[in-house]
Design goal:
By secondary structure, this protein is an alpha+beta fold. Helices cover about 35% and strands about 15% of the residues. The chain has 2 helices and 2 strands, in the order H-H-E-E. It has helices at about 5-10, 20-30; strands at about 40-45, 55-60. Helix 1 (about 5-10) runs antiparallel to helix 2. The radius of gyration is 12 Å and the shape is globular.
């Protein structure tokens, strides 16, 4: 499996407190060797929110 695909699969199944979400996503991306912490930007995307779920957008600088 591609490193990026592995990271996405792990992030999709991630369940954690909202306050630690950014840290957990960063940890997964680093663990899968997709990006380093200083390359990762995570923002809330309220437009994509669903009933009981908050959406986030992850950008990786190249």
């Amino acid at each position: 499996m591609e490193k990026t695909d592995e990271a996405i699969d792990r992030i999709r199944t991630l369940e954690c407190a909202t306050g630690s979400l950014e840290d957990r996503i960063t940890e997964i991306l680093e663990d899968c060797r997709v990006a380093h912490e200083n390359q990762i930007k995570i923002d809330r995307d309220e437009y994509l929110d669903k009933e009981d779920a908050q959406a986030y957008k992850v950008e990786i600088a190249s």
